[in-house]
Amino acid sequence: MATTKPIAVAAPGRVLVLGLGRSGRAAVGAALRRGITVLATDDSGEACEQAELVAPEGAVARLGEVDALVVSPGVPADHPLVLAALDRGVEVISELEFAWRLLGPAPLYAVTGTNGKSTTTALLGHVLGTCGRKVFTGGNLGTPLSDAVAAAGKDEQPWDCYVVEVSSFQLERVSGFAPDLAVLLNLTPDHLDRHGTMQDYLAAKLAVFAGAGHSVIGRDQDWPQRAREGGCEGIPELSAADCSSFGSSPLPAGDGGVCWQAEGRTVTAADGWTVKLPDHWPRVAHDLENVAAAAVLARLAGVSGEQFEQALSSFEPLPHRLVSVAAGGGLEFWNDSKATNTGSVVSSVRALDRGLLLMMGGVDKGADFSEVASCGARIKTVIAYGAAAGRIDDDLRGSLRVVRAAGLVGAFAVAVEEAEAGDAVLLAPGCASFDEFADYAERGRRFEQLARDWVAGIGR
Fold it and tell me: Does domain 323-455 have CATH number 3.90.190.20?
């Protein structure tokens, strides 16, 4: 199922890479590996020994020397250099698009969605690797796709396939990107501080399907119908031969996807392809959906039910994604630091069947926190903290009991003070972490340490 890649951008000419974080540096390395001369610039003045560094104030003047501007995911669409490049007719592409154009013929499987991208990507990569394939697993998950270009160039054996998590930021600037298989797991409000509207956010996500060989979507979700009613185009049709689905509802005739059953703990296809889920994982509904989505992709990639089941039994779920991290004093502590939007907060709350002290806060991403009130029967108190505390309070007060605290440590102290035996303390922030922490993982580790220290101190 390999696609035909276009000719590499600017080879053997030049590209200008904007942004020298992880993705930008990977793009520089990939370009040099393929003989493309690179200019690089970063607003913070970050150095780059591999490429000729251009000062931010001089970057516009150098656009005439390059064939493309390669932008890192964190670069906004209205960045002055991006606007100048577009005005001068210089192609602007994402690091994802750039790397894809440099890849070999091995198939690429793309995973996007608001929630569950990393888990689904990691699981699919694990399954294919367990089946003996040489798999690159990365993208937005952690290792940029450009790193695969450089690594494949050094290795005598090229990758058998690429499993890539792609974000809306990466998909903003793609043109030829054509994954062999592409899945959009779900869609709820997120990154509206970047995209502005849900329509623009959806448009970015749908770019994953524009050149896809086969599309996969959730058939039980309402976003496709709502988007069509709003005049949105480019949404895969479930009745099409090049589209499969996943869900808990019965499979439509001719659908090559799967059906998951929570009670029987199975994932099945119409032709008898079956997976029996292990007892240890998945435990909650949204992870069942992630497994089902990965199962569709794996099945389309030629994995048998027996192979998938065997691989699933050895899969270790990713950290900071609704995991119980400590228990004591009648309380249980759950870390879902990766829940950085309201849709994921709601999923986490609904997954736990007990009274909750819900810790929410961090940097507001433009979401409407009032959505969390829809599962208010389970939430005893929302502890709002950090930069977004005021917004959370405004959106939820009147629907839920809200207490404000000054940071994660303060919120934790309030949670354990207010909790009663049988309750759970849940960190599901619904926000980015950057007011206090480098990333969601650092935030999650801090919460886990607070929880374990509290449990250890009960008997003192």
Answer: yes
